[in-house]
Amino acid sequence: MNDFPKEEFTNRISRAQESLEKENIEAIIVTSPSNFRYFSGLNSNFWESPTRPWFLIISRKDPIRAIIPSIGSTALEKTIVKNIEVWQSPNPKDEGVSLLKKIIKSFPKNSNIGFELNNETHLRMSVQDFSDIRNELLDYNFVDAGRVIWTLRKIKSINEIHNISKICSIASKVFDSFPEKINSKMTEREITAIFKRELINEGADYILYMACASGQGGYDQIINNPTEKKLNNGDILIIDTGSTINGYFCDFDRNFGFGEINKTSLDAYKKLWEAIEITLEIIKPGISCSDIYSSLSKNIISKENNDSNVGRMGHGLGLQLTEPPSIMSNDKTLIEKNMIITLEPSIQINKAKMLVLEENILITENGYKLLSTRTPEKLPIIN
């Protein structure tokens, strides 16, 4: 079990049960790693093995229960989940499905049974098995449980905020001192290797995401892994990290210039920094994601610069690197106290070059708190 007190999870389950009552859903079947961890407290990276499905059942009135492969029983018994059924897995002919059907049949006929079926959720079970369940249990309605889950997860508890704040602080410390540790004779891979070591030395548990890119005056993408490319005079390097403590992520980037950087790129960097600065002034509970997007975009986009292939300009953050909502023009989600979001505006310098800045922030009662140290106002230059 992770470091959270038992009450953290009993509260989550109670709130989930209240939401199930409100949404007229009899039970939800949780299969995805982050949601399984959110409700049970299971602290494991065993999910990296895709062989076996795991099922967690939360109903309106019954205690939480699980159907899991036998290899996981001892670990799950250390969490708040005590009602556990197991099967010997791998067993392709029946990966816990008969046990799951039995539990579903224990609920009243015509009940709504929730699964993770909509955007930003997924089933971690065979599509064929899920189809068989629906086809056999025609007396039940299988519905999306995403709204129940994300209504809970988007508002962070004190314990969640503590963990996200801590990993943001660690990554900030490493970023802030990083220019002293790198030079233009290094490759992207060598630079990020140093960065990873520094993160672990400062107390990060895992570095589950590490994107890196570089190029003259900017870069053409922000999602690839580092390469053997050496840094050259005029290059701008971006490192974007999703590191964790206790399962909770930070997600922000920093840019570093090498040698002499052209004025166009420096001006673009300044425009991005100022767009975030202006937008931070309006951040508070009650504004919408589309309001935030509008503020960022209107301070970036111009006749000379009206193209961006990134799309959204930020997102939620927590047990996953990216969570709802999206900082996007079509997302009307209202910002609430104790949400944690990223601001991630991008600017196209030309069709082949871009720059991106990112911050992690906590929504407070009357405004916000930066969890990442503020991006330097001027691009750090390494000579």
List the helices and strands and how they pair.
Elements: H1 6-23, E1 27-30, H2 33-40, E2 55-59, E3 65-69, H3 73-77, E4 83-87, H4 97-105, E5 112-115, H5 127-136, E6 141-144, H6 146-153, H7 158-177, H8 188-202, E7 206-216, E8 235-245, E9 248-249, E10 252-258, H9 263-280, H10 289-298, E11 315-316, E12 323-326, E13 340-343, E14 346-350, E15 353-356, E16 359-363, E17 368-370, E18 381-382
Parallel strand pairs: 1-5, 3-4, 5-6, 10-18
Antiparallel strand pairs: 1-2, 2-3, 7-8, 8-9, 8-10, 11-12, 13-16, 14-15, 16-17
What is the gist of this entry?
The protein is of the alpha+beta class and 383 residues long. It has 10 helices and 18 strands. A hairpin with a 2-residue loop joins β8 and β9.
Structural class: alpha+beta
Number of domains: 2
Helix content: 25-40%
Number of helices: 10
CATH topology of the largest domain: Creatine Amidinohydrolase
Tell me the overall shape: elongated
Q: What proportion strand?
A: 15-25%
Describe it for me?
The chain has 383 residues and is an alpha+beta fold. The protein folds into 2 domains: 6-153, Creatine Amidinohydrolase, Chain A, domain 1 (3-Layer(aba) Sandwich), CATH 3.40.350; 158-382, Alpha-Beta Complex (Creatine Amidinohydrolase), CATH 3.90.230. Helices cover 32% and strands 23% of the residues. The chain is built from 10 helices and 18 strands. The strands form 5 sheets. Strands 4-3-2-1-5-6 form a 6-stranded mixed sheet. Strands 7, 8, 9, 10 and 18 form a 5-stranded mixed sheet that branches. Helix 3 links the parallel strand 3 and strand 4 (83-87). The longest helix is centred in the middle third of the chain and has 20 residues, at 158-177. It is elongated and about 70 Å long. The termini are far apart. The model has no long low-confidence stretch (mean pLDDT 95).
